[in-house]
Structures are given as C-alpha cells and as structure tokens.
## 1
Amino acid sequence: MALALPPGGRLVACDRDPRPLALAREYWAKAGVADKIEERLGAASESLEALLADPAQHNSYDFAFIDADKKGYRAYYEQLLRLVRPGGVIAVDNVLWYGRVAHPEEADKNTAALQELNDFLLKDERVAFSLVPVGDGMALCTKR
Ligand SMILES: C[S@@+](CC[C@H](N)C(=O)[O-])C[C@H]1O[C@@H](n2cnc3c(N)ncnc32)[C@H](O)[C@@H]1O
C-alpha cells in the first residue's frame, strides 16, 4: 500500500504487538517507504480513537484495511467509517473465513462474529458493499 502512495501520501499502521511492527519496519526500510508510514502501537480501537480525537482526520483517509482480531472488526469498521472520506474504501479481510461463514452450525466466536458482520455490511446503506472471493474473502465497502 505504501508503494502505491503518491508523493506526500501517508499510511498509518496499527498493531498491538511490537514484534510484527518491528518485522514490518525492516521491510518498509528495504522498500524505501519508511518515511510514509506512521506506526501506532496499541489496541486498534484506542489508536483509531486517538486519530478521531483530531477533527482534521475525519473524512480524510482514502483507504483502510482491517486484518486483526475478528471480534473487533465491527468496532473498527464504525471508527473507520468516520475517518474515511466519501468515495473511500474500507477493505475487510477474512470475511469468508476459509468457508466457515457458510455453515450456520459453526459455533466458534470468530466465525459468528464474521457471519454477523457480513449480514450487517450487506445491509449497511452507508456503503456500497462488494465481496471479493480471493483468499479467505475480502469485503470492499465504498463509503457513500
Ligand atoms: C493477520 S495479522 C495482520 C497482518 C498484516 N495485515 C499484514 O498483512 O502483514 C493480525 C495482526 O493483528 C494484530 N492484532 C490483533 N488484535 C489486535 C488489536 N486488538 N489491536 C491491534 N492489533 C491487533 C496482531 O498482533 C497481528 O499482528
């Protein structure tokens, strides 16, 4: 994503674990994009809330990618809807969850969270919803 940014473009990377951020940092440097990336270490809900505390950040992001704890997706989606501009896209990873979402009998909490999220996104009139069946499924929600 950072490689696709135009000059002056900026990417905010959130993770609660410093280890993947440290690994990612090596590759940002190798790719020559480290100066475009701002790290936020901590729970994603808190990092996003900190961004929302600045009104200048509202409706300002072109694109967001959610790929973390499945039960948190719905809350991150609501926060990101406020940060992404109209016409911007929120991509949500894992929405097919290796096919498990198609099985109502799957009772584990991650599958249930993704089943509920898909039902919600499909009906959410604030976005145009597409589900791309690559990998284990990616939802593309374009903010109206
Ligand atoms: C599947 S990995 C993401 C990989 C990343 N999208 C990539 O392509 O390199 C999931 C990440 O979510 C992070 N994570 C899980 N729960 C989180 C939370 N509540 N807040 C922030 N990050 C979280 C984990 O530490 C882990 O690094």
## 2
Amino acid sequence: MTQRFRLTLAQLNPTVGDLEGNAARIRDAWAAGRDAGADMVAFPEMFVTGYQVQDLVLKPAFVQAAMEQVEQLAAECADGPALGIGAPYAFGDKLYNAYWICRDGAVVARVLKHWLPNDTVFDEVRLYDRGPISGPYSIGPVRIGTPICEDAWYDDVSEALAESGAQILLVPNGSPYFRDRFDTRLSHMVARTVETGLPLVYLNMVGAQDDQVFDGGSFVLNPHGALALQMPVFDETIAHVDFVESDEGWRAEEGPRAVLPDAWEQDYRAMVEAVRDYCRKSGFAKVLLGLSGGIDSALVAVIAADALGPENVRCVMLPTEYTSQASLDDAAAVADALGCRLDEVAIDGPRQAVTDALAHLFAGHAPDLTEENIQSRLRGLSLMALSNKFGEMLLTTGNKSEVAVGYATIYGDMAGGYNPIKDLYKTRVFETCRWRNANHRDWMKGPEGVVVPPRVIDKPPTAELREDQKDEDSLPPYSVLDVILEQLIDREASIDEVVQLGHERALVEKVESLIYASEYKRFQSAPGTRLTPRAFWLDRRYPIVNRWRDRPRG
Ligand SMILES: Nc1ncnc2c1ncn2[C@@H]1O[C@H](COP(=O)(O)OP(=O)(O)OC[C@H]2O[C@@H]([n+]3cccc(C(=O)O)c3)[C@H](O)[C@@H]2O)[C@@H](O)[C@H]1O
Ligand SMILES: Nc1ncnc2c1ncn2[C@@H]1O[C@H](COP(=O)(O)OP(=O)(O)OP(=O)(O)O)[C@@H](O)[C@H]1O
Ligand SMILES: NC(=O)CC[C@H](N)C(=O)O
C-alpha cells in the first residue's frame, strides 16, 4: 500500500514573551491538525517564545519557563499528531536555538541550530551556542531533517541530513520582511532541493515585533525546486500538505498556490501590520497623530486607520499663524475621507507664553530656528498630553529621507512611540499614497477610494514653521536627495562613487555631513517598520560621536 504522510503547517503570529498565549495557539493548531488527520503539526522557529527575543533569552528564568512550556505541550498533545516547535534549549552552560520534536506525550528529539545569523538585524552569535549538525528524526513512516532557518541558507546542513537518511526537509523560520525578500529565500531553498534531491517545506511566521514584520509566505517544494504549495504572505494560515511515497522517494501533492502581491502592496501591508501588532501586543487600542495637511502625516493617518479602524485614530491639527488655509482644508479633507476624528489645538497662545517666559534671557538675540522649533515642541507636548489623558499612543511621522538628514525637531515632531514610515524614502511616500488611493484590500480597515487628496500629494512639502517655508529651502529636491541617500546609506557608497553618478561633490558632501551629524537624533528616535535591509536601528549601527568624513586625503 502507498505510504502517506500529512503535515500541518501553522503559519501563525506569536507574541514575544507570551509563553501561555503562544502555547494556546499551539494547542489550537495541533487540534486542527489532529482533526484533519495530520501525522505532524509544525510551527516556525522559536514559536513558543516569539521572535526575536534578543537579550531576553539570556535570562535563565525565561529559558527555563519556555522549556517547561514545551514539556507541558508535549504531555498535553500526546494523543494525536507529533509536534515540531521552535524554542530555546539550555544544557549545562550552553544555550541553543532549537527545534523540539514531541510525540506520544514526550520530547523525542531536539534539533540544534548550526548556522547562527549575525548580520542585519540578527545577533545570534552573541546569544546562542552553535549546535552540531543534528541528524534526522522519524515521524511515522518518514525521516525528517530540520535545518533551522539560517541553516538552510548554506548547503552543508541539508546535505548532511540527506546523507544521514532524511527523506523530507522541514525548515522552520523566523525570517523578517524586507522588500523583495521572497525571491532570495526561494532561490536558497530551490538550491537545497536541487543539491539533496529531497522535497522541502519552508515554514515562516507572520506578525510584527518592534521594527520587524514577519511576512509568512511559507511554501513547499518538490525536488529540483518544483513548487507544490504556496501560502499567502502576512496572513495567519493553517495548511495541510500530503506527502506520498513513490519509487523515487517522498513527493508533496499539489496544494493551493497563493498569488503574492507586488512590492508596493507588500511594503504597505508591512507598515499596517507593524502598527496593528505594535499596538495590540503592547496594549493600545487607539492612536493619535498631528495631522498637518502635509503628505507624511496623511500617509501615517491612512496606515493607522487601515491598521486599527478609523474610529481608533485621533487626528489633531495644531495650527499657528504660519499655517495656511490650504493646510487646514487638506487636514480636514484627509480626516474626512478616512472617517477619523479631527481635533484642533491652537498653539499660538502657549507659544507666546514660552516666548514671554524666555524674553529676559533672549533679549538682544534675533529670532531664529529656536523660535521655529518651539512650535514643533509645543505640538509634541500637546500631543503627548492627549496621549496621557486618553491612553492613545502617539505616532510620529518622519519619513526615511528626513530621518536620514535629521530634518526634524528633537523632542518636537520626533515625539511619539512608533513611526510606521521611518524606512520609507519621501519619493516612496508619494507613490505609496497614489497606490493606496487606487487600491483597497479586505485587510484594510479604512475606507476605499481616494483617502489622500491629489492636492496633498502634489503640493511642495513644507514644515510651515515660518512664513512661506519650503523643504527645498533647506534640502535638495527629494528626487535628488533620495538617490544620494540610497547610495550613502543603503549601499554604503563612497562620496567619489556618488559623484561619478553625476551628483555635485559639494552637495554629496553636505548630505553626508547631515547624515553623520544627526546620528544623535536617530538614536533617540521612535522605532519604526523595517522595509529594507538597511533600516535605521539594528541594520545600520553607527557611532554617535564621529569625526570621520569621506574627503580626499594626501
Ligand atoms: N551631537 C549631538 N548630541 C546630542 N545633542 C545634540 C547634538 N547636536 C545637537 N544637539 C542638540 O540638538 C539641538 C538641535 O536639534 P533640534 O533642536 O532638533 O534643531 P535643528 O536640527 O537645528 O532644527 C530642526 C530642523 O528640522 C526641520 N524640520 C523639518 C520638518 C518638520 C519640522 C518640525 O519641527 O515640525 C522641523 C527644521 O526646519 C530644522 O531644519 C541642539 O540645540 C542640541 O541641543
Ligand atoms: N499644523 C500642524 N498640525 C498638526 N500637526 C502638525 C502641524 N505641523 C506639523 N505637524 C506634525 O509635525 C510633523 C512634521 O511636520 P511638517 O509639516 O513640519 O513636515 P513634513 O515632514 O512635511 O510632514 P507633513 O508632510 O505631514 O506635513 C507632521 O507630520 C505632523 O505630524
Ligand atoms: N532566523 C534566521 O535564522 C533568519 C536568517 C535568515 N537568513 C533569514 O532572514 O531568512
């Protein structure tokens, strides 16, 4: 009789530190697998603890609690499919990122991660010991080999597993999103199936943790990279895949194939999921933001409305004498299109009070940026007062271009707990608004149609901190600035290399200086959604005090 093996894939969203909650999700998915006749139910990397746990895993009490949780799950899920669960494993003075196999009421195997990722947002060499390459384990009629995430990005672990008798590769992942990430994952996994001749299951988690968004997109490949099943990106999904034994070995039967959205949609979805999960997982039902009539705060309002529902987003217009009627109208148009509450708090009175209080010290000094920044700080102060009073978290709105050059007031418009557009260059802000105006999906809680009026997209950006101010008074046009920033930040290009692309040396040097001189602002800035492998915070870690500038020597 033909042998069959049914594997249930739990592409689910864990919460870091919520051992009980994550265990409850495991029990539910295990029951779903049992009801579907599965032989095994698999979860992503470190699902019991959530991912990434960073230094939390260096606390022995936390690791102990996580291991006890797995032992308890093994005992509870005795009568039914086997379980594969990611969790840490402490043994003697060693600490491993491990995959625990539970069957018939007991832990029957532990696979230890061999390759510890230590670039971009990962620091696993600092946290874990490197495990030896573990052998395959048996579940029913099949021998399964488990390279844990990074282990499958190299050939040796999968090859060793194949040589020691693995018939299927099951790869649990905690692989965070960045733009066009999926293709890289797929090509690594296809390579593993070509080298080993084995089918491979790539199982990723979904959900956001601080800056990172895990985008799921799990899939199953037959040997030589033939796609058998594609799960959706970002959605929690449970799928069952059937393997059948043939003369050639085990093969996955064809299952559903989700269509993956384009990069604009995936970036937008990442920002929405990041806000949604940041709020839900840290206990906020509502947010607020300063809505200026400009494009950045408009986009943040739309993201927040799509994440939490318009009824949970408070927009606040805080005008001064420099605020134009067009800005007042545009802020009202955005709030109206979204169906969000819009409040107004005039800050001219407080500004006068601060000016008066400082007058005896400022006497003899001409007004300058100081006075401009007081307006921004009064906005931050007022918004934080609303946040304190109503328990709504303040979203901050600086795009990647502004964050890169420090074009924001520290303790002013930088005030806030989370910044959804921190890794989105301004030129992409324009395009993202156009994309959202033209597209609506069922995961968006905001309304469909034009939510950012074309006028907001097309007008010249301004901070309105003084008469007739425009961003281009201080900065080059964003179409030029963003190209230079992408070279200097995302590609770590030299000044010479950027000049060779046709940019003026003096301008490139100025941009470089602005980047280095504003490191202190970024260090004190809110976290935000990571969309690229060169996001500010963990992907790019620069010194704050830094005299180096890339200038000709000799
Ligand atoms: N290395 C360092 N380490 C630690 N702190 C450092 C520092 N260098 C300056 N500082 C501190 O930072 C202060 C200067 O920074 P900051 O006070 O932010 O002021 P600053 O960067 O000089 O001015 C804010 C800029 O953001 C622009 N902007 C754009 C868009 C919106 C808004 C808005 O507010 O709505 C503003 C505004 O036009 C202006 O160009 C210094 O007075 C000093 O206290
Ligand atoms: N009049 C205002 N009312 C409410 N919030 C404001 C106002 N002006 C500025 N802000 C807040 O400060 C942030 C920085 O604003 P500013 O308009 O100065 O620059 P910006 O980067 O062009 O942003 P935007 O495109 O949203 O205007 C805004 O995104 C908004 O959250
Ligand atoms: N958790 C991991 O080992 C992740 C590293 C891997 N290269 C990825 O991002 O997909």
